[in-house]
Design brief:
Elements (H helix, E strand, L loop, with lengths): L1 H36 L2 E7 L5 E11 L2 E6 L3 H4 L8 E5 L3 E5 L5 E9 L2 E6 L3 E7 H14 L1 E7 L4 E11 L5 E5 L5 H6 L1 E7 L2 E6 L4 E6 L5 E4 L6 E5 L1
Antiparallel strand pairs: 1-2, 1-8, 2-3, 4-5, 5-6, 6-7, 7-8, 9-10, 9-16, 10-11, 11-12, 12-13, 13-14, 14-15, 15-16
């Protein structure tokens, strides 16, 4: 019995060692992959791109990380970037923009393919994303500006509104309702909007938010969906 127990413990130890080795290999592969994916041009911005700057990540070693270049406008648009001198990958999935001592100025984690989020305490969330993708999103946002109609699922119009590019606080823009809106929408009374992760977000003074997501018919439906949906249509 003792011999069997020793044998079983030995097998368990071997399995554990193999599992740890596999995890270690997977971690190394993930880190290596991320290091290979990151070099290139990225946009560092506030969540809705009211303040942006271009960061070029390089594969060349620099002290405790890798070299990078910040466009001159970065220091004015995002003052905290003055302390950034290099970048590195930490752990499995953290992309760090760091100071001369290797300490984090801001750490980013990937939330979607090619889109990273980082938080600076007391300031808020910042986005790091592929420059070409970011500029494509900016074009999409420009296309949102103008007059819209909100209709019910049966096509009945219930309100008109105008999305503007006039800033209304951090990362938000002004929206105006047209006269004779349905009571539900008039009571909601959105005053600000933003484009966030492919969704149109309407916000009221009271802090309530309605989210609209593009469907297969190029319409924007309020989510979560209901039996009597609200749909935004471009005019």
């Amino acid at each position: 019995m003792a011999a069997r127990r020793i044998f079983a413990l030995a097998i368990a130890a071997c399995v554990a060692a193999i599992s740890l080795a596999q995890i270690s290999i997977a971690q190394a592969q993930d880190t290596t992959t991320l290091k290979k994916q990151m070099p290139g041009q990225w946009e560092l911005s506030t969540t809705e791109r009211s303040k942006t700057c271009v960061v070029t990540l390089k594969a060349d070693a620099a002290g405790q990380g890798f070299k990078l270049e910040l466009e001159p406008a970065c220091k004015t648009a995002l003052p905290f970037t003055k302390a950034i001198v290099a970048w590195s990958v930490r752990g499995l999935d953290i992309v760090r923009l760091q100071d001369a001592t290797g300490e984090a100025v801001i750490d980013f984690t990937e939330v979607e393919a090619g889109i990273f989020e980082g938080l600076r305490q007391g300031e808020g969330v910042y986005i790091l994303q592929d420059l070409a993708a970011a500029r494509s999103m900016a074009k999409s946002m420009d296309q949102m500006i103008g007059d819209w109609s909100i209709v019910r699922g049966n096509g009945q119009p219930v309100c008109g509104l105008t999305l503007t590019n006039t800033e209304a606080g951090p990362d938000n823009f002004q929206v105006f309702l047209k006269p004779k809106c349905d009571a539900t929408i008039a009571q909601f009374n959105p005053t600000q909007w933003r484009l966030e992760r492919g969704q149109i977000i309407l916000m009221s003074k009271a802090g309530e938010a309605w989210q609209f997501e593009a469907d297969d018919n190029a319409q924007w439906r309020r989510i979560p969906d209901t039996a009597d949906p609200l749909i935004m249509l471009r005019q």
